[in-house]
Amino acid sequence: MLSNLLVRIDLSRKDFSKGQRKIADYIEEHYDSAAFMTAAKLGEEVGVSESTVVRFATQIGYDGFPYLQKAMQEMIRDKLNSVQRIEVTTGRIGDSDVVESVLNQDIDKIRRTIDEVSREDFKKTVDAIINARHIYVFGAKSSSYIANFFAYYLDLIFGNVHILNSTSKTTTYEKLFRISEEDVMIGISFPRYSAMAVDAMSFAHERGAEVVAITDSMVAPVVKDADEVLLARSDIASVVDTLVAPLSLINALLVAIVIERKEDIKKTFIDLEEVWREQNVYAGNRIDSTRS
């Protein structure tokens, strides 16, 4: 995506107006900040009108400024460090109500995920999980928390789950070396992408396992070895990693699995509920037992 945008600019540069050349120069030098500006703000920064910015986007082949903005954001998807994220987030919110602003942004990410996730790959992922001999779930850094959540419920249902959440090569490959074509590998990776996640997905693919990537973009590095790709939108410029949409997508996978294997899973949870009751696992059970 980086080379694609810059190539478009280079190919069109001879036809640019003076104002468009200013925009091109600014994007090439400051795409990390330009990616989060509105057309009006970018025009103000460069010294041209908003309409000139919009015409520039179409001049280099995009269907409007939002598509140019998305291309710039893809360029920096794995490049923003923590300090830059703080600057972008505070600039976005400004004097707005923080609760309303952040929650509305999360709502938007879930809506975009609904539109973009492949229903075909979703169904294939459900089938692969149900039919797998072993299920491997990888998630490092902030992604490890939703990976653990996913693995917890999968293990309650199937009992054949291996969670991988280390960035150590030794630990990861010790857990992965038995993976085979009878297994499924689910890699959860969001910016800033884990290099170990990419390596683990590649290893699982080489061993013939079904490989599923849960990530935010088709240009994410974990996609190249994936048989199925499930896109869930995150916020690459938030102070913290925004994983509301990925968690919602994982909830949907769990629900779909339960629906598909309803009777078997009901039996499993009937047995679990009995064990939980006998062992007073939950506080409600302790209260009931003291009353009887």
TrEMBL record:
Cleaved signal peptide residues: none
Keyword Transcription appears in the UniProt entry: yes
GO molecular function: carbohydrate derivative binding; DNA binding; DNA-binding transcription factor activity
Domain HTH rpiR-type: 3-79
Classification via Gene3D superfamilies: Glucose-6-phosphate isomerase like protein, domain 1, Winged helix-like DNA-binding domain superfamily/Winged helix DNA-binding domain
Top-rank taxon: Bacteria
GO BP terms in the entry: carbohydrate derivative metabolic process
Pfam annotation, one family: SIS
Keyword Transport: no
Keywords: DNA-binding, Transcription, Transcription regulation
InterPro entries: Homeodomain-like_sf, HTH_RpiR, RpiR-like, RpiR-like_SIS, SIS_dom, SIS_dom_sf, WH-like_DNA-bd_sf
Domain SIS, residue spans: 125-264
This protein's name: MurR/RpiR family transcriptional regulator
The organism of origin for this protein: Ruminococcus difficilis
